[in-house]
From TrEMBL:
Signal peptide interval: 1-22
Keyword Ubl conjugation among record annotations: no
Protein name: PRC-barrel domain containing protein
Record lineage: Bacteria, Pseudomonadati, Pseudomonadota, Alphaproteobacteria, Hyphomicrobiales
Residues annotated as domain PRC-barrel: 48-112
Organism, as annotated: Bradyrhizobium uaiense
Keyword entries, A-Z: Signal
Domain of life, per lineage: Bacteria
Amino acid sequence: MKLVHFTIVAGIALSAPAISYAQVAGSTLLGVSVGELRDVTVGWSAKRQILGHTVYNNMDERVGSIDDIIVTTGKAVSYAIVNAGGFLAVAKHNVAIPVSQFQLNGDKLVLPGATRDALKAAPEFEYAN
């Protein structure tokens, strides 16, 4: 009986390194490699640092807020959807703005030269069906 238990435990112990090796970070399984994980951890969080945050112009006036981020099929963040609507965003007017036009000034997202009226006059962004 003890020999059977020993054989089972020995079999599990010998197969454990093979099982753990199959899930090493950076393998072709799900997730990211250790190198990619470093990039992810120092990158921007859309939820924490972008979405819902106020957009200012270079005169420190509030001109809208970030409602969404558009990632193109090429996997690049290309556009921010800015809500330039009315008070407390009751009347939405979403405008697509290339992310290259934004500047980061301290902890503020700045859209140089923008005014609330100019954003409201821009064509409204609508999601494809």
